[in-house]
Specification:
With 625 residues, this protein is of the alpha+beta class. Helices cover 52% and strands 18% of the residues. The radius of gyration is 32 Å and the shape is elongated. The two termini are 52 Å apart. 46% of the residues are buried.
């Protein structure tokens, strides 16, 4: 298919056409009324604008409905299409034009609610560099990713995205792999360390040996999973179509009975005009737009309006770990010392020294020292050689921060003093070359995590909560215990996360909450995907909802906004349809001709829309835990 055809048939183009039809119809109906009542022209002349409306506006709308019928998609707008055709056949042109306005106006309103998001795959592609820097001897040349061969040495400059999976052969530094692996920390890189495509380099240049071709890299595999997920994501049945499934046959039955009983086809048209489901076509989109506006004021961006309709029907809530139920940053949680009475003093020494370090854990130690209000000591002779740890003279003492492995390599006799290994990261502290203690770090759980999880069942009818993470088992189990989640999956790749979400979504509607590139396939596969923050353009492109202010309270606010939107939208829909049913019986009895029926339907629309507008008025409170 050519690009021109694809563009012309795209949903965005069609929505723009519907908006043009709506404005054109308003202009033509206005011109008809002026020619008929202000200028007093002939019937043929004042009907020309209506003919143009039915030809230029009605035919495209009816053609789209016919294509839906061919695909066996019987939506709530079928009655509007029948009304347009019958009104043209019976010469009731004004009634037909009003129906064109109702149909195109409702679709245009809903199109306004839909944000025009770019492709997730395009965002993924943009994130990767288009060229790699291949190093041959002392010369560095730029080559396309497709030209990379296994064994090539590639330079990854500071803050660049790594183009391939490989092994560091030169240089020392750190890389941010959290978006890919779920590990919440910057990972140290030295010769021999593995690196992943898509990871973001730190402040130091690294030379990396390519272990895989670019097409076989971790990032390319995620793109492939994303492409598959995008193609297989089921289309949710919209609220209006669900209600229209029973309303449409009922209205048709009333119209046919009226026609047969009266032997007057105008009766059928009158019923169809009154039956045109504008409470579905207009009131529900108005409620959605109001909810999108309310959510935006709460720092919640609704990218797919259908998420507002379906969130309240979800019964399983699946969390990624890093950055959702945790802050995604290391925190000093244990200080296991040889002499507990020196805890404050040792933290003062180590905190003062770590202010000069670029190690990923340095910030956590400094933050702990600040919280403990330790005294900042004088520091001299600071040394942080790559792979050797951090040393310095602090208040006259030689302080060394290193790893368990390096300590045992130089002082094997210290093994008895070391605590047993546990989950999370750790460093060991030496004072004047003697082991003094071990600091342990974990990704800090959000303080409201347990209360949030506990309230999901009673308040939001969430039957199951699950924790699915790419992080290590010890870390994930630790968090699950803290927040009260029983179903836990750790060390999950993006493909495995996707499989879990697909399996759960087949059982019941799901909400998936994540914040990394490794979450993007799962976000797309879930009934509703919620992304935390703006850490990755790929993640936000894949999500239906983006929470700008990363907090669990915002998730609760979104759930309440969804509940409220459904309640008010259903009130407008059922109330409007009930009034329409009353009008249909009057039309069937001959008391409402087509034009009067169309005007009557407009009054019903106003009532339904005014009620739907209530959704934009913020309540006193939008969270309850």
């Amino acid at each position: 298919m050519s690009d021109e055809v694809s563009l012309a048939d795209s949903p965005t183009t069609w929505r723009s056409r519907e908006m043009l039809i709506a404005f054109f119809t308003i202009a033509m109906i206005s011109l008809h009324l002026i020619l008929r009542f202000a200028v007093s022209t002939s019937e043929t002349t004042y009907n020309v604008p209506l003919w143009l409306t039915l030809a230029l506006g009605g035919i495209p709308l009816v053609w789209e409905l016919l294509k839906k019928l061919w695909r066996r998609e019987f939506g709530s707008d079928l009655l509007a299409g029948i009304s347009i055709v019958v009104s043209a056949m019976l010469g009731e042109y004004l009634a037909g034009a009003l129906v064109v306005l109702m149909l195109s106006g409702g679709e245009a309103l809903e199109a306004f609610a839909v944000s025009s998001a770019s492709s997730v795959l395009r965002a993924l592609s943009k994130r990767m560099p288009s060229v790699a820097h291949r190093k041959v001897d002392s010369v560095v040349e730029d080559i396309p990713l497709s030209k990379i061969q296994i064994g090539d040495h590639l330079a990854v400059f500071p803050h660049e995205t790594c183009p391939i999976d490989g092994t560091v052969v030169e240089g020392h530094g750190v890389m941010d792999e959290s978006y890919l692996t779920g590990e919440p920390y910057l990972m140290s890189k030295a010769p021999g360390a593995t690196v992943l495509s898509g990871a973001i380099n730190g402040d130091s240049a690294l030379i990396v040996r390519a272990d895989k071709l670019a097409v076989d890299s971790r990032y390319a595999k995620i793109m492939e999973v994303m492409r598959t997920s995008e193609q297989k994501k089921p289309q949710m049945r919209r609220m209006a179509d669900t209600l229209g499934a029973w309303y449409t046959p009922l209205a048709l039955a009333i119209g046919v009975v009226a026609w047969i009983a009266s032997n007057d086809p105008v009766r059928f048209l009158a019923v169809m005009v009154v039956a045109t489901p504008c409470p579905l076509l207009i009131a529900i989109p108005v409620a959605i737009i109001g909810s999108i506006s309310l959510a935006a004021r709460r720092a919640i961006i609704i990218r797919d309006p259908s998420s507002l309709e379906t969130a309240d029907t979800c019964r399983t809530l699946i969390f990624d770990k890093t950055g959702t139920l945790t802050y995604g940053e290391p925190n000093l949680v244990e200080q296991l010392l040889v002499d507990d009475s020196r805890q404050h003093e040792l933290l003062s020494y180590v905190g003062s020294l770590e202010r000069f370090s670029k190690h990923p854990l340095a910030g956590a130690i400094v933050a702990a020292a600040n919280r403990a209000k330790t005294v900042q000591q004088n520091v001299s002779e600071v040394s942080e050689l790559p792979g050797k740890g951090l040393t310095g003279i602090v208040a006259g003492h030689r302080i060394e921060v290193t790893s368990r492995k390096k300590l045992l390599a130089h002082q094997p006799e210290s093994s008895d003093a070391l605590p047993a290994q546990a989950g999370g990261l750790e460093c060991v502290i030496l004072v004047d070359d003697r082991y003094a203690g071990t600091y342990r770090f974990r990704d800090t759980p959000r303080p409201d995590g347990a209360s949030f999880i506990k309230h999901l069942g009673p308040r939001h009818r969430i039957d199951r909560t699950m924790l699915v993470s790419g992080d290590r088992e010890s870390e994930v189990e630790y968090l699950a215990e803290q927040v009260g989640i029983k179903e836990v999956y750790s060390s999950q790749s993006p493909e495995q996360k996707l499989n879990i979400v697909n399996e759960e979504t087949a059982k019941a509607n799901t909400i998936f909450v994540g914040d990394g590139i490794n979450d993007a396939p799962a976000l797309m596969a879930a009934t509703v995907g919620v992304a935390f923050g703006q850490n990755s353009d790929v993640t936000t492109e894949a999500a239906d909802v983006v929470v700008m202010d990363s907090s669990l309270q915002k998730i609760d606010e979104f759930l309440h906004i969804s509940q409220r939107m459904r309640r008010i939208a259903l009130q407008s829909a059922f109330g409007g349809m009930a009034l329409s049913l009353v009008g249909m019986f009057f039309a069937a009895a001959g008391y409402l001709p087509p034009v009067a029926g169309a005007i009557c339907q407009e009054f019903i629309d106003v009532i339904a829309v005014v009620n739907a507008l209530r959704v934009a008025i913020p309540p006193k409170k939008l969270f309850d835990y």
